[in-house]
Amino acid sequence: QVQLVESGGGLVQAGGSLRLSCTASRSIDSINSMGWYRQVPGKQRELVATITSAGRINYADSVKGRFTISRDNAKNTMYLQMNSLKPEDTATYLCNVLAGTIRTYYLWGKGTLVTVSS
Description:
By secondary structure, the protein is mainly β. 0% of the residues lie in helices and 57% in strands. Strands 2, 4, 5, 6, 9, 10 and 11 form a seven-stranded mixed beta sheet that branches. A four-stranded antiparallel beta sheet has the order 1-3-8-7, with no helix packed on it. Strand 4 (31-39) and strand 5 form a beta hairpin.
């Protein structure tokens, strides 16, 4: 089973930046899309950004202009550059992969905590 491992979270002041990474334990065939989600205890998991195999990118309105999703296929890694961070960005950030052809499946990492202080 492929594992996704997030890293790069931490404590940062408002206005600061962090870069999150999501690395797969091995290459994944037939990736349809990859994405970042975030979750705050007691709230629904929220989509942050996605990138399809064709390179189409989608951002949540709340992060547009501040966050950038990218990937490095050679390193089996996806990134989320987060700039101009706000206290409301505080959450556990999880990476996600949708893969497969006839039968699709999701992979999830365990998350990395981002805390933005005011």
